[in-house]
Design brief:
This protein is of the alpha/beta class. Helices cover 33% and strands 11% of the residues.
Length: 221
């Protein structure tokens, strides 16, 4: 069964025993055995491994993993070191620099954010190579909705950054007034100019956390 290695294990133990997840597990066994699936099966739960429940300060929701070779490693919008930054990630770094002055890093690996409390969660955690959204509707959404609900129930204030229609559809899961929900169009080149650029989310998230005794460091070396 799944072993994350931190407080998520206890929080999700019941979920991993439910019928929908057992069906999803069987589906994934078949998929990994007969076709190319991203990320590597050992990286599927990296978002939760890197960012324990009690350390989450910011949640960024993605859709499903990148479906090209060498890109996905279990953190939404992030790619492995040495891999060319995808256009959406380039736009994320462009907005970050415009708001904070932090220059775009050499690599597109967002693990430093995850280690500092930014949960980089896709709503679907696997995908067939070259086939975007190919694992949608197989059960992942039930699990990740539970993750969001657990975070919503937490008392400590956090920020949810919902970029794009799929992420914004989850806004209704966050109704705890302790938290801040920020919505914008997706950072994809197709939509970034319609409200992602200039959204101010990085700055606003930092200001919100500061008012509540927290902080977030967006720098990546």
């Amino acid at each position: 069964m799944v072993h994350i290695g931190n407080d998520w294990d206890a929080l999700l133990s019941e979920e991993f025993g439910k019928e929908y997840y057992l069906r999803l597990r069987q589906f994934l066994r078949s998929e990994y055995a007969r076709t190319t699936v991203y990320p590597d099966m050992h990286d599927i739960f990296n978002a939760l491994k890197y960012t324990p429940y009690e350390r989450v300060k910011v949640v960024i929701l993605g859709q499903d993993p990148y479906h090209g070779p060498g890109q996905a490693h279990g953190l939404c919008f992030s790619v492995q070191k040495g891999v060319e930054k995808p256009p959406s990630l380039v736009n994320i770094f462009r907005e970050l620099e415009a708001e904070t002055g932090i220059a775009p890093p050499k690599d597109g690996c967002l693990a430093p954010w995850a280690e500092r409390g930014v949960l980089l969660l896709n709503t679907v955690l696997t995908v067939r190579g070259g086939q975007a959204n190919s694992h949608r509707g197989k059960g992942w959404e039930l699990l990740t909705d539970r993750v969001i609900a657990l975070l919503n129930a937490r008392a400590n204030p956090m920020v949810f950054l919902l970029w794009g229609a799929n992420a914004r559809a989850k806004a209704g899961l966050v109704d705890n007034p302790a938290h801040l929900v920020l919505e914008a169009p997706h950072p994809s080149p197709l939509s970034a100019h319609y409200g992602f650029f200039g959204c101010g989310h990085f700055r606003t998230a930092g200001e919100f956390l500061s008012r509540h005794g927290g902080a977030v460091d967006w720098a990546i070396e």
